[in-house]
Amino acid sequence: MKLYMHAAACSLSPHIICRELGLDIELVQVDRQTHRTSKGEDYLAINGNGYVPALMLDDGKVLTEGPAIVQFLAEGSALLPDVGNLSRNEVQSYLNFITAELHKPMVLLFNPIYSSVHGEIRALISKRLAWLNGRLAGPYLTGDAFTVADAYLFVCLNWSPWTDIDLQQWPALHGFMAQVAARPKVREALQAEDLEAFDADGVYFAPHAYLASAGRTGEPVRP
């Protein structure tokens, strides 16, 4: 299988799931400006929407949209409860919440086109994060078990330093980030995408070039 991705983007979520499950996956980088892949392909011919992730199966079929991809990958594993188990619906509920209420609004904070309403967007995200902070059922979203929803949340919250959102005000979420960042397979995924930690706790990660452009100083810590 091939996972079309961009370092530190939402494609990191299915990448983490592949690592957690020990799946044999080929990572294919996508240039978001040219829509060309590291293999010289026209990515728009693979995913007409142009964004990552996309998963190409061994038979050539392509699956898009991160929440669908991670459920496909994790089916039958401990990372996704079985059909008929209410815990599965809880995980799916979190996947929907993350994609609609966190992922998409946070992406807008990276886009200067929406700069005039960034304050309002940030206020909405903060409201959602406050709710989520009070909902954490344990070290992970649904309790003691790490699921596909946790990987997705980790990736979205990893963008918070670059969107001027301070997770320190929500201790449960900050603790969640540290918990997920410490998982060995998560560290493998971060290493494979050449992401570096810049904070003392080793909780947030970004490409070295992006850290430099954001004015971060000091020696990054390798994950």
TrEMBL record:
The keyword Transit peptide does not apply. Residues 84-223 form the GST C-terminal domain. Residues 1-81 form the GST N-terminal domain. The lineage of its organism: Bacteria, Pseudomonadati, Pseudomonadota, Alphaproteobacteria, Hyphomicrobiales. Gene3D superfamilies: 1.20.1050.10, Glutaredoxin (3.40.30.10). It holds the Pfam family GST_C. It comes from the Bacteria. It comes from Rhizobium fabae. This is Glutathione S-transferase. Its EC number is 2.5.1.18.
